[in-house]
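User: Hey, my collaborator sent me this sequence without any context and asked if I could get a structure. I don't really work with proteins. Can you help?
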Amino acid sequence: MTPIHYRPANLSDAASIGRLHADSWRRSYRGAYSDAYLDGEVGDERTAYWTDRLSEVDADHFTIVARRRGAIVGFAHTRVDEDATWGALLDNLHVSHELKRQGVGRALMSETAVVLGGRRPASGLYLWVLQQNTAAQAFYAAQGGSCVEETIRCPLPGGGRAPSLRYAWATDSTLSSSS
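Assistant: No problem. I've predicted the 3D structure and written it out in structure-token form, which is a compact way to encode the shape of the chain:
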């Protein structure tokens, strides 16, 4: 397999991240997000979102991309100090469908732990996953995450509501030790 390289995202990555994000949502969130949204505006909306996000210079968040042969094949976006109890929010973790189960997600989480550990050594890390996304739940559990809460999150992009689960890691060292 061609090697995968990891680096901080920059503004020129926004369109590629937006396309990957939209594809991931189309494949994983059908039934939770409206079909009209997933079949229509999600691509443009996610690209605009990432253009705005990556235009911001802010120490309170960071995005790491995975690249293979010059193309972005995964990304992780983290918001530092998001919650007083749980710590940093891993707000997005997506890997191209073709490379799932090949270690890219695990490596992105490990890279996230390294950056977070450099910024906030004692910070915990958490994320939200839709209850219907059982493959992601299995992945997070395999990375040492614990399901600590269930809630209905709304509104979702494009409208709607869905049962969601909070997965948490006590500290970044817990996460980095699972890789």
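In plain terms: The chain has one domain: 5-176. You can pass these tokens on to your collaborator as they are.
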